[in-house]
């Protein structure tokens, strides 16, 4: 590749629980997201003929480059080969940035520097013959190789090098700079609010968790117009809990697409918690941060008892799936989410969890079926950039 160094800047402190105001709906899946953003584009790899030449070239008429959906020439009419190559190389660096994990030993020892890896791009677009040309130790070189090999395993393919119009093997080298940086405990919004992502004490509702549960149970109103509908579902919100205890809803997800009336009732409940929070603390000072708030809708009508029981049973199965995933049992987790979805179809949260786990099991077609169904059901997804990268437009 003709890029410069790829800088892997890693914060010294753990990753924040809430990332720049985005709703924290993935908290039960942290361990499942290591290979989350691989942008596969094998669908537009042209057929290659077998070649007898086994020479590994260092120079070619056309250098190889990764095939990524976002750089598909069909989406960018008028782009030259160089434009497509630059796009693909930048996207590859972005994928590496999102998936390389700074080794803990390197973090503890403050190990920083440049790792250089190389590999051969075969005429069929696969990577092979991985080598570690330069290492800085403490697991950095091994981590760089791990991610490259994982990319090939899950389906990343390359446009091969050409010599005289014939695909040939060519060695590529890639320098990766590992650099630790100090992580700020906050970020600043477009409205100039300082939102802390790292705190010493989380915000607390008056009276604690049990009091919050009771508040939601007694104050959440099921929309009167839908009492006979027996609709069940979850609306999750992300609240700014300001340093004075006031709140503001930053984001809202209606996982079962219950509709505006249910969303309004969830919003109204969240606003009623205003002034009832003890704000988060950082270095013994009150600070503004984000707090997730989930509310469950079940109609109190007697005729809806069976629907409510189905929803409760499916929710328990989905929670079992999350626990199984945390215990590194992804296949069992998928089975639990599948059972839950048979009872309560089209729950987009469970579809997302199952799809993400399937993706990490290298079952991309099934994962995209779940991801695309979420898109179909909601019209918009909270992970749309990821869905497009993985599954296309």
Kindly describe this structure:
The chain has 393 residues and is α+β, with helices and mostly antiparallel strands. It has 3 domains: 6-181, 2-Layer Sandwich (TolA/TonB C-terminal domain); 186-300, TonB (TolA/TonB C-terminal domain), CATH 3.30.2420; 307-391, Tetratricopeptide repeat domain (Serine Threonine Protein Phosphatase 5, Tetratricopeptide repeat, Alpha Horseshoe), CATH 1.25.40.10. 34% of the residues lie in helices and 23% in strands. The strands form 6 sheets. Strands 1, 2, 4, 5, 7 and 8 form a 6-stranded mixed beta sheet that branches. Strands 13-12-17 form a 3-stranded antiparallel beta sheet, covered by helices on one side. Helix 7 packs antiparallel against helix 8, helix 8 runs antiparallel to helix 9 and helix 9 crosses helix 10. The protein is globular, with a radius of gyration of 25 Å. The two termini are 27 Å apart.
Give me some keywords for this one:
single chain; 393 residues; alpha+beta; TolA/TonB C-terminal domain; Serine Threonine Protein Phosphatase 5, Tetratricopeptide repeat; 3 domains; three-stranded antiparallel beta sheet; 10 helices
CATH class of the largest domain: Alpha Beta
Low-pLDDT windows of residues: 2-49
Radius of gyration: 25 Å
| End-to-end CA span | 27 Å
- The CATH superfamily name of the largest domain is TonB
Strand content: 15-25%
On the 0 to 100 scale, the average pLDDT is 84
Number of strands: 17
What's the helix-strand series?
EEEHHEEHEEEEEEHEEHEEEEHHHHH
Shape: globular
Total domain units: 3
Quickly give the CATH architecture of the largest domain.
2-Layer Sandwich
- What's the story with the biggest beta sheet? 6 strands, mixed
Count of alpha and pi helical runs: 10
CATH fold title of the largest domain: TolA/TonB C-terminal domain
Structural class assignment: alpha+beta
């Amino acid at each position: 590749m003709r890029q410069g160094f790829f800088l892997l800047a890693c914060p010294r402190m753990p990753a924040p629980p809430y990332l720049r105001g985005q709703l924290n709906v993935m908290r039960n899946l942290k361990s499942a997201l290591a290979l989350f953003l691989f942008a596969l584009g094998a669908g537009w790899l042209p057929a290659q003929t077998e070649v007898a030449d086994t020479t590994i070239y260092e120079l070619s008429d056309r250098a190889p480059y990764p095939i990524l959906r976002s750089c598909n020439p069909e989406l960018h009419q008028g782009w030259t080969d160089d434009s497509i190559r630059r796009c693909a190389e930048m996207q590859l660096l972005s994928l590496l940035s999102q998936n390389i994990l700074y080794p803990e030993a390197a973090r503890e020892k403050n190990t920083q520097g440049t790792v250089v890896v190389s590999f051969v791009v075969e005429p069929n677009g696969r990577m092979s013959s991985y080598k570690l040309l330069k290492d800085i130790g403490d697991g950095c070189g091994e981590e760089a190789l791990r991610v490259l090999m994982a990319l090939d395993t899950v389906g990343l393919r390359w446009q091969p090098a050409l010599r005289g119009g014939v695909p040939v093997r060519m060695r590529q080298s890639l320098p990766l700079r590992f650099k630790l940086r100090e992580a700020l405990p906050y970020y600043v919004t477009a409205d100039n609010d300082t939102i802390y992502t790292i705190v010493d004490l989380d915000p607390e509702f008056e009276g604690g968790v049990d009091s919050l549960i009771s508040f939601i149970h007694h104050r959440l109103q099921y929309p009167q117009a839908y009492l006979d509908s027996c609709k069940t579902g979850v609306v999750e919100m992300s609240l700014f809990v300001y340093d004075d205890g006031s709140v503001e809803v930053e984001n809202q997800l209606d996982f079962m697409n219950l509709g505006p009336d249910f969303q309004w009732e969830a919003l109204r409940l969240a606003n009623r918690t205003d002034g009832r929070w003890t704000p988060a603390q950082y270095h013994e000072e009150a600070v503004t941060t984000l707090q997730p708030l989930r509310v469950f809708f079940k109609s109190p009508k007697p005729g809806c008892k069976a629907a409510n029981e189905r929803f409760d049973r499916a929710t328990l199965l989905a929670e079992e799936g999350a626990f199984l995933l945390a215990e590194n049992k992804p296949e069992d987790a998928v089975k639990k989410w599948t059972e839950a979805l048979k009872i309560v179809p089209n729950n987009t949260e469970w579809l997302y969890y199952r799809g993400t786990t399937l993706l990490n099991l290298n079952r991309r077609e099934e994962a995209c079926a779940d991801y695309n169904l979420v898109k179909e059901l909601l019209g918009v997804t909270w992970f749309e950039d990821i869905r497009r990268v993985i599954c296309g437009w």
